[in-house]
Write a structure and sequence with these properties.
By secondary structure, the chain is of the alpha/beta class. The protein folds into two domains: 230 residues, Type I PLP-dependent aspartate aminotransferase-like (Major domain) (Aspartate Aminotransferase, domain 2); 123 residues, Alpha-Beta Complex (Aspartate Aminotransferase, domain 1), CATH 3.90.1150.10. The protein is built from eleven helices and 13 strands. The strands form three sheets. Strands 1-9-8-5-4-2-3 form a seven-stranded mixed beta sheet, with helices on both faces. Strands 7-6-11 form a three-stranded antiparallel beta sheet, with no helix packed on it. The protein has a three-stranded antiparallel beta sheet with strand order 10-12-13, covered by helices on one side.
């Protein structure tokens, strides 16, 4: 049996007629950028996430960049980010000429360790970006408490966490701004690049709305300089179809995660560590990430059995060449350095069958036998 890491083809075939209808409507109307379908997406997505305002954008990276520029990040400013995340989170700070300040992550949740944030705050710190990694919400109560104490902005990176909840609140609405990616492989994915920002602050909303279109709301009238970060109509057409299914797809991910949890607990006990999820959060399992001391060998073995797997992420940001100028060294972030050698992402997608889950778990078990 072959088990793919994700299965976008199966998903597409289930909604093919609706997708093609939406795309054809765009082609027939010949409005290709920021038209009626983008507007509908903004209205429906903000409703789904319980936010007042949404600005649809061209990618998740552009969403982060837009949010940071909107809160005024500039040369010399520092922004706190987890060291274990995709580089888009930190490079968006650099694009504003700011400085990313890394914090180690919690060993159980893989999210930023809230007990290590305050020691990184200086008089140059302007914001915190918690990343709800793998679809698991970060500890937002403590982050908001720290942000209020030091008068900092909070930008939630929800690129992997569509519809996740923290203590009954949708992530992306707890801080000042929530940023989203709709890269094709995400829980809510376009058929190309797309992103969005959410906020409940009207002033921030208006600023981000202007920024995505060269500082303009009224055509050829520019209140400021901005960028070209507009969402394409075809991507909005795809996302509008997928919005009808995202809640059921999310529930299927949770069900699949529960089956993994049960089987892996029974099969392995001490050989691997399954994801930890506090009872007060509702994770959405963009990724199902286990830890194993023989990770590399296990990954190769699973590949030989037809089970695709991946690493998220193999090298922490402080060890990346791109951040050599920050002068970090091995040992600065011990938890991230330890976990990056143990983490392994195994197949997770809404359409995964019980048979496929059983095969993945049996394959893992056979490796340790």
């Amino acid at each position: 049996m072959n088990v793919p890491f994700v299965d976008l083809k199966t998903q597409y075939l289930q909604i093919k007629e609706e997708i093609l209808q939406g795309i054809n409507e765009v082609l027939d109307n010949t409005a290709y950028v920021c038209g009626k379908k983008v507007k509908k997406f903004e209205e429906d997505f903000s409703k789904l996430e319980n936010a007042k305002y949404c600005v649809a954008l061209s990618s998740g990276t552009d969403a982060l960049h837009t949010a940071l520029l909107t809160i005024g990040i500039k040369s010399g400013d520092e922004v706190i980010v987890p060291v274990n995340t995709f580089i888009a989170t930190s490079e968006s700070i650099s694009l504003c000429n700011g400085k990313p300040v890394f914090v180690d992550h919690d060993e159980r949740t893989f999210n930023i360790d809230v007990n290590k944030i305050e020691e990184k705050i200086t008089n140059k710190t302007k914001a915190i970006i918690p990343v709800h990694l793998y679809g698991q919400p970060a500890e937002m109560d403590k982050i908001i408490e720290i942000a209020k104490k030091y008068k900092l902005y909070v930008i939630e990176d929800c690129s992997q966490a569509h519809l996740s909840e923290y203590k009954g609140n949708k992530t992306g609405t707890i801080g000042d701004i929530g940023t989203y990616s709709f890269y094709p492989g995400k829980n809510l994915g376009a058929y190309g690049e797309a992103g969005a920002v959410l906020t409940n602050n009207e002033e921030l909303f208006n600023s981000m709305l202007r920024f995505r279109q060269h500082g303009s709301v009224e055509k050829y009238m520019h209140d400021s300089e901005g960028h070209n970060y507009r969402m394409e109509e075809i991507q909005a057409a795809v996302l509008n179809v997928k919005l009808r299914y995202i809640e059921s797809w999310t529930e299927k991910r949770r069900q699949a995660a529960a089956k993994y949890n049960e089987q892996l607990a029974n099969l392995l006990k001490n050989e691997i560590i399954a994801p930890y999820c506090p009872e007060y959060v509702k994770a959405v399992y963009h990724l199902y990430v286990i830890r194993a001391k023989d990770r590399d060998k296990l990954g190769k073995y699973l590949n030989s059995k037809g089970v695709q797997n991946a690493l998220h992420y193999p090298v922490p940001l402080h060890m990346q060449k791109a951040y050599s100028y920050l002068k970090h060294k091995e040992g600065d972030f011990p938890v991230a350095e330890k976990c990056c050698k143990e983490i392994l992402s195994i197949p997770m997608f809404p359409e995964i069958s019980d048979e496929q889950i059983n095969y993945v778990c049996e394959s893992i078990k056979s490796f340790f036998d």
